[in-house]
Amino acid sequence: MTKKERFAFVLKYFETHVPNAETELIYDNPYQLLVAVILSAQCTDKRVNLTTPAIFEKYPTVETLSHATFDELFPLIRSISYPNNKTKHLIGMAQKVMEEFNGEIPATVKELITLPGVGRKTANVITSVVHQQPNMAVDTHVFRVSARIGLTTNATTPLQTELQLLKYIPEEQVHIAHHWLILHGRYICVARSPKCGECGLRPACKYYHQLIKEA
Q: Which residues are in the HhH-GPD domain (predicted)?
């Protein structure tokens, strides 16, 4: 199977079986999504979703968050991984959005990555989820699943993975393909014991065919 054929099989499978894939983070607007994604770094979406309601109740807008103090915000995210840094990042992000973007969450990767706590992955999530821009966010799930299936070859960094995926995924599918790969990695192609017996991608999966050879 060629790389092009592998991508075609995988995308067709997801399109047929998971046509409405979307983020599992709960949000109502770009501000809430940005807060949630910043908090989700090295933390589960489930934990983030348990944490954000109290934040959004106290700080319903980016403007109100920009006036928060560390001591006020920290208790609300104490249960999240790296709470000290994330508290500082959230306040700094809100202040910069107010000062430099007139209170509007930026809509481009270039602008978003200037915000505290926002790297390329977070910026790609925001622009793809909110604006359906063809940007591929690569987290640990996307990185692992892409390599196992054989969608990427010798990619050693998230950026290399991103660029290889963008080469073969049609532009109009990039925003949803991000969710397809994440959800597949979260529930089927898990890190330690992938559930190959339940996986519909076996015909196209290099990892699975290697297991057959070794059996």
A: 39-187
